Amino acid sequence: MRNNRYHVREFERKFANYLGVKYAQAASSGTARDYNEQMGKLTNNLSSLNSIYEVDLMDSNTKLMNTINDLASTSEAS
């Protein structure tokens, strides 16, 4: 936290200098925190969806292999 304050103060100083004024003050609306929270939720949701997709994919693979084996045994019986 201490390091962050230094960077904010440094930014304020440089920004004031750029504007040609004595002081400038930085303010945060909290959007970065909100963004990070939303990204965390999105990451969790995508992880859950990926898990479901992988289970579904394994089930599809099993069904495909069973179908291939059934067709192979049918052609052998002919």
Automatic annotation (TrEMBL):
Pfam families in the cross-refs: DegT_DnrJ_EryC1 (PF01041)
InterPro entries (UniProt xref): DegT/StrS_aminotransferase
Protein name in UniProt: Uncharacterized protein
